[in-house]
Amino acid sequence: MKKIIVLTAVILAFATALAQQPMQGTTTTIGGITRVCLKNWAEATICFGNEVAVRNQVVAGEPLADKAYDDYFTVRGDTLFIGERDDIRQTFYITVQLDSAKAAELIFCDHSEGTVHPNGKSAIKILACDDSKVNIGRESDKTTSVNNLKVWSFNNAVVKLKPKEVSGDTVCLYSRNESSIYARTVSGNNIQHTPNVSLGTSYSDPVETITGNKHWTVDFSWAFNNWSGSPFNPLKRLPAGYGISTTPTSYQLSVGYQLNILRDAWYLNVALGYESDVFNFDFDEITTDVNDFDDGITPLSGQSDLSVRYYIKSLSLVSRYVTLPITMKYKHKWFTASLAVIPGINYTSSNTGFKCTMSEKYDPYLSLRRDVAADLNLFKCDLRLSVGMWNLVKLFVQTSTVPLFKDSPDVYPLKFGITIGRF
User: Fold this and answer.
1) DSSP sequence for 359-380
2) Of 229, 320, 238, 224, whose CA–CA distance to 280 is shortest?
3) Is there a contact between 134 and 108 (Cβ–Cβ < 8 Å)?
4) 258 backbone dihedrals φ, ψ, rounded to 5°
5) Helix (H, G, I), strand (E, B), or coil: what is residue 211?
6) Which residue in 6, 111, 163, 242 has the fewest CB atoms around it within 10 Å?
7) pLDDT profile of the chain (423 residues), mean per 10
8) At CA 124, angle to CA 89 and CA 163, rounded to 5?
9) pTM of the predicted protein model
10) Which residues, 6 or more positions from 387, have their beta carbon under 8 angstroms from its beta carbon?
11) Helix ranges, 51-137 (H)
12) What 3-state DSSP class applies to 64?
């Protein structure tokens, strides 16, 4: 009787201990797999000729037993798809037997992460894209052998060959579209790589140090210029005499630093910029009094009467600013959208202000200039909305929330154009 009681107590204690352990999901073995595709933030460690341990991001609650396996992964033919649903974040484990004699293809996309351990025999093709991160081998390994290794990276993916040396018959490394591949030493009979593949990289450095230059941004903007009587209504008319032509005479240049603030999708950029705007008035040879343009004009052709009337051929206003663009950007695959606040301070020089070309029957090439430091607002603050493709080209509209002139009527510059650069 005592033996039964003791045995029962042991069984109960063992069962209690098991019940108190955190549930880590279910392990399932699947065979016949030669291709693995990860997506939707899935994570995996892949060991050739051995097994694949797959782990999704951890979120408390919802035990795995309550979910169908198809929600997490599915097998179609010889391909295992992991991360079928993007709204499930549950820890689980899968073991996959890979055939070492067959070439394997591994695809990492949609922010997925993985570690690949080659066995030196299997031919391996790795495709990393869409902000995925892939490690090949271990940093502690002196040499990792590969038979045939081909790696492609696109769209901000990062691939690292971790061992001190990766040696194989054929090693091909191709990086495109803001992606990166890092390796210490690569040796073999057939070595190919794109110029932007980084060789001789030490992984003892922080990731921020290795990829820090990717955070710097440079862009140039060219736009058509006009203005309106309202910052958000380009059709609001201005009084007579304030009409200008829409001309491609706005130029902006900025250099900034970009910081990822959420899941490689949201970025904050702070930059230092320069802006030059030329506004061309819409005139059809109208007359004006010289005194109305500049009281300091020297009389021409020996005439002392400053009220001599001339014909205006052209009139333009040149304004320039030092700016501090602050931009919030969203990026998904090839699409980007951003909203920027652009405060700026006006400065004057010999090349700013009103510029006027006039005609008179004895001197048709008279050019006059008037400084407008006292007329323009010292500060401005613009809003810019941009949309773009491939992180290289953007279209934008920009409006000012501060009037250009100190005195009425209120004039608000408007711009629409294109931005090119690395941002």
Assistant:
1) E-TT-TTEEEEE--TTTB-SEE
2) 224
3) yes
4) -110, 135
5) coil
6) 6
7) 54 45 50 81 76 61 50 79 72 66 84 86 89 89 88 91 90 86 89 85 46 69 91 79 86 91 82 94 55 40 37 78 94 87 88 72 49 75 90 90 84 93 75
8) 85
9) 0.49
10) 335, 336, 337, 394, 395, 396
11) none
12) helix
Pairing of strands 35-38, 79-82: parallel
Question: Which two tokens mark 219?
Answer: 């862009």
Question: Cα-Cα-Cα-Cα dihedral of 9, 11, 13, 16, to 10°?
Answer: -140
* Rounded CA separation 219/386 (Å): 13
Closest C-alpha to 334, from 261, 264, 392, 386: 392
Residue appearing with tokens 């004039």: 411
Which uninterrupted H or E stretch holds 12?
helix 2-20
Q: Are 179 and 128 in contact (CB under 8 A)?
A: yes
Counting Cα atoms < 13 Å in the Cβ hemisphere of 162 gives 16
Q: Is the dihedral of CA 221, 223, 228, 233 positive or negative?
A: negative
Q: How far apart are CA 191 and CA 142, in angstroms?
A: 19
What is the pLDDT, as a whole number, of residue 273?
A: 96
Residue 282 pLDDT: 78
- Compute φ and ψ for 146, nearest 5 degrees: -135, 145
The C-alpha atoms of residue 202 and residue 304 are separated, in whole angstroms, by 78
Kindly provide the residue ranges of all beta strands, DSSP E only, lying in 77-164, ordered along the sequence: 79-82, 93-98, 104-108, 113-117, 123-128, 133-136, 143-153, 158-161
The Cα–Cα gap between 125 and 29 comes to 23
φ, ψ of residue 89 to 5 degrees: the values are: -130, 80
| Sign (positive or negative) of CA dihedral 176, 178, 183, 184 | positive
Sign of the CA dihedral with 254 first, then 259, 262, and 263 last: positive
* pLDDT at residue 395, as a whole number: 94
Tokens of 216: 């710097």
Q: How many CB atoms lie within 10 A of CB 300?
A: 14
The number of helices, as runs of H, and strands, as runs of E, in the chain is 3, 30
Burial class (CB within 10 angstroms; exposed 0-12, middle 13-18, buried 19+) of 66: exposed
Which residues have C-beta within 8 Å of that of residue 229, sequence separation ≥ 6? 236, 237, 238, 409, 410, 411, 412
State how far the alpha carbon of 30 is from the alpha carbons of 53, 74, 105, 121, 311, in Å: 11, 10, 16, 21, 88
pLDDT computed for residue 38 by the predictor = 86
pLDDT value for 390 = 67
